[in-house]
Amino acid sequence: MSVHDVRLFGDQIAASRLEARFSAVRATSLLRLAIEDLFAGKIALVSSFGADSAVLLHMISQIDARTPVVFVDTGQMFPETLAYRDALVSRFGLADVRSVTPDPGRLSAEDPEAFLWSHDPDRCCDIRKVAPLAAALEGFDAWITGRKRHQAATRAALSLFEAEGDRVKVNPLAGWSASEVIAYLRSHEIPPHPLVAKGFLSIGCLPCTSRVAPGEDPRAGRWRGRGKVECGIHAGTLDAGSDI
Ligand code: SF4
């Protein structure tokens, strides 16, 4: 599989070939390969600066701190998340963190009271997350996510690589367990997100995130009781090509 082949992504077969070739490669090696070789200059990390985000942020800072990082600030984030973002950016020396926000015109027209989440969360996620991310990813051939198989039943079959239109999603931590994340953070003396200690194991927007009980999936606290499990970003709805 050449880089040229990779750039022609748009079919699941190509992603499957990558998966077969790199499934045994360690996360850091895979990340380095993706950033320096496969998609050099054309890949971004999409980070929620949530519960597990520091792992990939730290890894890319060790590979190339200039790697673009896209953070979608929906306007509904926990204050703790914004503070954690600023702390990690400074600590890791990340040089290209792009905090993108929803279109003000759409917000004033469709969610003027910032209450759309309560009665139409799919629409709210589309305006506040999916659309800003799609715009931010224009021009990139690939993006990195921190999704893991253990997080939810809907992610149990997650691959290292996913084809998505003309873009590739790279999931270096797909096979990581919760204990591996904790061990990585401890071994590098990286502070956890402050809400983790309060029982938030997957952290999104404030109105749609709740604590997780022992034994529940880490993502059980997202849109609890709403019958919604993903924001749309990972549901194949990103026209530009789809923790967080
Ligand atoms: S997670 Fe909730 S508040 Fe955030 S964009 Fe989606 S519906 Fe809106």
Short note summarizing the structure:
By secondary structure, the protein is α/β, with parallel strands linked by helices.
Annotate the secondary structure layout:
Layout: H1 3-7, H2 12-22, H3 27-38, E1 43-46, H4 54-64, E2 69-72, H5 79-92, E3 97-100, H6 104-110, H7 121-136, E4 142-144, E5 161-164, E6 167-170, H8 178-187
Parallel strand pairs: 1-2, 1-4, 2-3, 4-6
Antiparallel strand pairs: 5-6
Helix pairs in contact: 3-4
Bound molecules: iron/sulfur cluster (SF4).
Describe the protein in words.
35% of the residues lie in helices and 9% in strands. The chain is an alpha/beta fold and 244 residues long. Helix 4 links the parallel strand 1 (43-46) and strand 2. The chain binds iron/sulfur cluster.
How would you describe this structure in keywords?
244 residues, six-stranded mixed sheet, 35% helix, globular, Rossmann fold, disordered C terminus
- Largest sheet entry: 6 strands, mixed
Hetero compounds: iron/sulfur cluster
Strand order of the largest sheet: 3-2-1-4-6-5
Order of helices and strands: HHHEHEHEHHEEEH
* Number of domains as seen in the coordinates: 1
Shape category: globular
How many beta-strand elements? 6
Number of alpha- plus pi-helical segments: 8
If you average the pLDDT, what whole number results? 85
Which CATH-level-2 architecture?
Answer: 3-Layer(aba) Sandwich
Straight-line N-to-C gap: 29 Å
CATH topology: Rossmann fold
The percent range for helix content is 25-40%
CATH superfamily annotation: HUPs
- Helix/strand-derived category reads alpha/beta
CATH class: Alpha Beta
Low-pLDDT windows of residues: 239-243
- Rg, rounded, reads 17 Å
Strand % is 5-15%
